[in-house]
Write a structure and sequence with these properties.
Layout: E1 3-4, H1 9-17, H2 21-33, E2 43-44, E3 53-56, E4 61-68, E5 73-81
């Protein structure tokens, strides 16, 4: 199980601004339980050496996160628009 570190208030503001609060909360539960859950579509961002990952909130938005504490926890740093 993955621990989600306390969120920066800006992440909460981004979720609320885009009406994603419920979807984001659901995704946080899923990622804490199973990092490989298919609906999250976790992927590493480019350039890969920065080790920034993202997971899907919905078709338009993704959350960016970093692994911490030897990959036992994650820090969600932003919510962004995902362009296909």
């Amino acid at each position: 199980m993955i621990t989600i570190l306390p969120l920066d208030p800006e992440v909460y503001r981004q979720a609320k601004k885009h009406n994603l609060s419920k979807k984001f909360a659901k995704c946080c539960v899923l990622i804490a339980q199973d990092l490989t859950h298919p609906s999250l579509n976790v992927e590493i961002m480019q350039p890969k050496q920065l080790q920034i990952y993202s997971f899907r909130i919905d078709k338009k938005y993704r959350a960016l996160f970093l692994f911490r504490e030897n990959q036992k926890s994650i820090e969600i740093v932003a919510i962004t628009v995902h362009y296909h």
